Amino acid sequence: MQSERSGRRFRTGQGLIHFLLLAIVFCPQRSFAETKVVTDADKGGDVQMKVGDKLEVRLKSNPSTGYMWYLHPKSTALLKLSGEKHADATDQPTGQPTDQSTQPAVGRPILQVFTFEPRRKGDGILLLRYVRSWEKPALGEEQFTLHVVIE
């Protein structure tokens, strides 16, 4: 009787392991997510993504002059802003993000690194503005646009 029970438990355990292996192999695309990186050079371009991917937008700014990039209120609702970090644009050629508490030297440019996650399928325009936060929007303000297609 004991060996019969232990045999069932062993088979149940094996079945559970097989199930977990199959779940890993056939897991949703989120585990195979890709991070798309765009920069100033991609302004006005297109990017294709899948639900589960991430979009990283790296733009140069100079906060010591008051100018920073901000997400425009009319930007597509398909993307959710999930983070923003700063990187020193002069010391780090790869632009690795640093903690926001790290203050760049006055007058030195930085990279603002925005991270977005797609909410659902569709296409829209990501829109960022380069402005001083205390000034009213002007007609000639610099903007970064990117056509985003989420599959």
Could you characterize the architecture of this molecule?
The protein has 151 residues and is an alpha/beta fold. It has two domains: 1-31; 33-150, Immunoglobulin-like. Helices cover 16% and strands 40% of the residues. It has one helix and eight strands; from the N terminus they run αββββββββ. The chain has one helix at 2-25, and strands spanning 35-39, 46-49, 54-61, 67-71, 79-88, 110-118, 122-132, 142-150. The protein has a four-stranded mixed sheet, with no helix packed on it. The longest helix has 24 residues, at 2-25. The termini are far apart. The model is unreliable at 91-95 and 97-101 (pLDDT under 50).
List keywords for this structure.
151 residues; alpha/beta; Immunoglobulin-like; 2 domains; 4-stranded mixed β-sheet; 1 helix; 8 strands; elongated
